Amino acid sequence: MSDAFQDRENTFEKQFAHDEDLHFKAVARRNKALALWVAEMKKLAQADAEKYAAAFVAAQVGKSDDDVAAALKTDLAHGDIDLSDHRLRNKMDEEMAEATASVRAGK
User: Fold this and answer.
1) Under a CB-based contact definition with an 8 Å cutoff, are residues 57 and 32 in contact?
2) What are phi and psi of 48, to 5 degrees?
3) Residue 99 and residue 78: Cα distance in Å, rounded?
4) On the CB side of 16, how many CA atoms lie within 13 Å of its CA?
5) d(CA 56, CA 68)
6) What CA–CA distance (Å, rounded) separates 54 from 36?
7) 48: Cβ–Cβ under 8 A, 6 or more apart, which residues?
8) Which of 16, 24, 27, 47 has the largest count of CB atoms under 10 Å?
9) Over the stretch 25-65, which tens digit does the pLDDT of each residue have?
């Protein structure tokens, strides 16, 4: 009987690790999409936008959604771009849904 419980526990642990990995990838993908969106609003050249996005994603690893939103708002403010919190949060939710679907689909 204990082998069955051990197998079940191992299965749950593997599923949890898999789900966390998918979530991590989805958040990174969302953050990149958000950074590219901000770069577009700031009218950055493509190469600069890619560099900005890569740096942004790296800087946001392990940060909360509130921290990500604050960083984006700060970057937008430096570019003299006014964006409502509501619009930013909607874009974050939209990009997260797309990123999650993409990661789950293996893309």
Assistant:
1) yes
2) -70, -35
3) 27
4) 6
5) 9
6) 9
7) 39
8) 27
9) 999 999 999 999 999 999 999 999 999 999 999 999 999 99
